[in-house]
Amino acid sequence: MLQGRHRKKVIFVVQFVFALGLLAVLWRIVEGEEALRLLARAEPWWLVASFCALTLQTALSALRWRLTARQLGIVLTKAEAIKEYYLAQIVNQAVPGGISGDAGRAVRARAQAGLMASSQAVLLERVAGQVALGVVMFFGLGVAVTLPGGLSLLSGLALAVSLLVGGAVVGVVALFALARRSAGRVANGLVSLGAAAKAAFSPASVRWAQIGLSLATALCNVAGFTFAAWAIDSDLRVSAALALVPIILLAMALPLTISGWGVREGAAVALFPLGGIAAVEGLAASVAFGSVFLVVTLPGLAFASSGRRQGLRENEVSASSA
User: Fold this and answer.
1) Exposure winner among 114, 199, 307, 312, fewest CB in 10 A?
2) Contact in structure between 57 and 220 (CB atoms under 8 Å)
3) 3-state helix, strand, coil in the chain (%, to 5)
4) Long-range contacts of 263-271 (CB under 8 A, 24+ apart)
């Protein structure tokens, strides 16, 4: 256990230092002083709008998880789902890998159907969110490169992303097909996950609710970033936001830094010029978004504190009755 804790501390330090290094490099590349000036002049009401969009995203994501879990035999109230989602978000903000909070969510929900089912519910819910971001991205890229006045610079990006995603989809389909014809723990796990996904998304009674919640959470995320960009007076257009912001947010899934810091900013700096926007605006917008999202997750601290107090009370009752 000590070795595991030591390894986590080392990973945390490495990811933290790497994030600082990326931000320092970006600061030098795009004139960080200008980014600071943009942030200092940020319009508060657009930041409030970003906060509201991201708060709504949290609630909708929790409801999506609740729906997915119910299909796998785990019943949660709306309040429980939202509380657990806030707890997961605040942990993900501070712990290496960005998934420890979700792992805790699965562990705490395991009582009704077992750890396998609760883990699958969490994984499938997160995957649904990423897929929805991908759908929004392709829609945005299509709009940006086809409509009059669209962003012709994005045509190459659209082709590259399409090839990458297409290859990934083919690989995943082939992997599940191979698992059905194979034996072993990995193959059995993939078959079980495929069955869980069918139960969670296929029934007509939940299909449209899953689609609606997933697209709504994706659009709230995009809106949260777009409002943060408008707060620093960026010229980010809606058509460009639909194409670029999902890619920026998907880059955060790379477990290279703490909560995507540095990676997200690097993606924004690289992609904003494709939309005809200064790279420095990408840096400032991404920092504003990250800061707002951090504030959005803060209720998780209150839930964590109340959970610890409840745990202490339960331990005291157990000790007194022993």
Assistant:
1) 312
2) yes
3) 85, 0, 15
4) 263/19, 263/22, 264/289, 264/290, 265/22, 265/23, 265/26, 265/290, 266/22, 266/26, 269/26, 269/29, 269/30, 271/157, 271/244, 271/247
Residue in this structure with the two tokens 């590349």, named with its chain if needed: 29
> What number of CA atoms fall less than 13 Å from residue 15's CA on the CB side?
22
Query: In this predicted structure, what is the pLDDT of residue 140?
Result: 85
Helix 154-180 to helix 238-251 angle (10° resolution) is: 40
CA dihedral 98, 303, 289, 213 (to 10 degrees): 80
CA 177 to the chain's CA centroid: 28
The pTM assigned to this predicted structure is 0.85
Question: Which long-range contacts does 99-107 make (Cβ < 8 Å, 24+ apart)?
Answer: 99/255, 102/126, 105/65
If one counts every other C-beta atom within 10 angstroms of the C-beta of residue 246, the result is 27
List Cα–Cα distances, 68 to 14, 164, 191, in angstroms. 35, 28, 18
Report d(CA 197, CA 68) in Å as an integer.
9
What ranges do the domains of the chain cover?
A: 43-301
- pLDDT for 24 equals 86
Cα dihedral angle (268, 273, 275, 278), rounded to 10 degrees? 90
pLDDT tens profile 82-139: 999 999 998 888 766 567 788 888 899 888 888 999 999 999 999 999 899 988 988 8
3-state secondary structure 168-209: HHHHHHHHHHHHHCCCCHHHHHHHHHHHHHHHHHCCHHHHHH
Inter-residue contact 232 to 288 (CB < 8 Å): yes
Q: Which of 247, 253, 98 is nearest to 164 (CA)?
A: 247
How far is residue 72's CA from residue 199's CA, in Å, rounded to a whole number?
7
Which positions ≥6 away from 161 have C-beta within 8 Å?
Answer: 137, 138, 141, 247
CA distance 218 to 240: 15
CA distances from 44 to 122, 279, 285 (A): 34, 22, 13
